[in-house]
Amino acid sequence: MTQLKVEFDGHSLITPSAIASELGAAKGEFFEDHLAIGKGELALLLELADQQFKHGEDPVKIIDRVTFSLHEIRNKFHPRVWQELVPFVQNHPVSSFFLEDPLTRWSFEKPRGYSGDATLMDLIYQHESVADQVAKASTLGKALYEYTSVAPSSVAARDRKDILARHVDEVAAANGPETEVLSIAAGHLREAAQSVALREKALKRWVALDQDPLSVGTIARNFQGTAVETIDGSVRSLLAGRQKPGQFDLVYASGLYDYLIDKVAIKLTQRCLEMLKPNGVFLFANFANPIAVDGYMETFMNWPLLLRSEADMWKIIHASTDGQDFESKIFFGKHKYIVYAALRKRA
Which of 95, 109, 145, 184 is most buried, by CB atoms within 10 Å? Predict the structure, then answer.
């Protein structure tokens, strides 16, 4: 059956070209020399991995070595050189082996039409909804999935889900049964299944906004009869004022900022702060720079992200709150792979 593809780029301002523009730069004086060196190093790395796969060597050791080496090569060269090296890696015959991993394949092929969709996150979460998909993978694919699904980046993403549920429960405990929560780019809202406040009906409403109709439908089915409400909406609709979901005690965006260039991230932050009640909290997260799996994600997974440092997060905060009275803090999750910013609106 053909998958419905969402025109994600056109509605949410999250585009490959925007990411390339953010990361790109003019070719330097030694660009061609560095590109040739990079291709040479990658050719040796990938050819060795290809031969090891064909000889039936341990796939976990292969992917671990390749992941580490891609990270080293990515950091060795200028970003403009690395951008040219990405398709070189993707087009190498060894990619067929890595694509047997259901997580890597889903990310690379993007059946929903965009990066980081809810099913990809379910594969990272090892959620029961993707069990059949994993079961149908080849023996090699299962072995690779055992590696990618427990890589530090995947562990950090599962930790992020726990952090979100905990924040909802803490805000609900502080504010009582009239608590209102908004999740932007909610995906399948898997964190809600872990929320004590939702389970004990201690929330007035938990609004899940996503521009993917399949994700919205999944949330509506899974949380029917609870405080969860769904909105089919995008970043652009929020920024343009077409979506006015109300005022909230907690607004959060857990995986969205990885794709937003600074000027859009700042505008979205300002919009989210406008939707806070007094003492309300806005929480957003971003994969941190650097992470050891960045090279593998950008090549074999075809999953480019805008990684941000603690300083990058403060830059967004300061630009978004200029002259306004907000209490701000930054913290990290497991392995320091994801950095979080929390802004509280003073009463």
Answer: 184
Amino acid letter for position 293? V
* Amino acid (one-letter) located at 167: H
Specify the pTM: 0.92
CB atoms within 10 A of CB 3: 12
Phi, psi of 220 (to 5 degrees): -60, -40
| In contact, 77 and 25? CB cutoff 8 Å | no
Instruction: Give me the sheet containing 338-345, strands edge to edge.
Output: 228-232, 205-210, 180-184, 248-253, 276-287, 338-345, 326-332
Chain-centroid distance of CA 275 in Å reads 23
Cis previous bond, 290, omega within 30: yes
Angle at 320 between CA 315 and CA 324, to 5 degrees: 120
Spatial separation of the C-alpha atoms in residues 120 and 278, rounded to whole Å: 36
Whether 125 has a pLDDT exceeding 70, the answer reads yes
**HSE toward the beta carbon, residue 127, CA cutoff 13 A:** 20
For residues 108 and 85, give the distance between their C-alpha atoms in angstroms, rounded to a whole number. 16
Q: Decide if 114 contacts 303 (C-beta within 8 A).
A: no
Q: What is the pLDDT of residues 55-106, one digit of tens each?
A: 999 999 999 999 999 999 999 999 999 999 999 999 999 999 999 999 999 9
CA neighbor of 73 nearest in space, from 100, 48, 46 = 46
Distance CA 127, CA 199 (A): 19
* Nearest CA-CA partner of 300 in 142, 70, 61: 70
In angstroms, the first-to-last Cα distance of the chain is 52
* pLDDT score recorded for residue 97: 98
Residue 187 DSSP SS3: coil
Distance from C-alpha of 320 to C-alpha of 314, rounded to nearest angstrom: 10
**Per-residue pLDDT tens for 4-55?**
444 444 444 555 555 656 555 567 678 899 999 999 999 999 999 999 999 9
Q: How far apart are CA 338 and CA 313, in angstroms?
A: 11
Single-letter code of the amino acid located at 65:
R
**CA 129, CA 135: separation in Å to the nearest integer?**
11
43: its two tokens: 């050719």
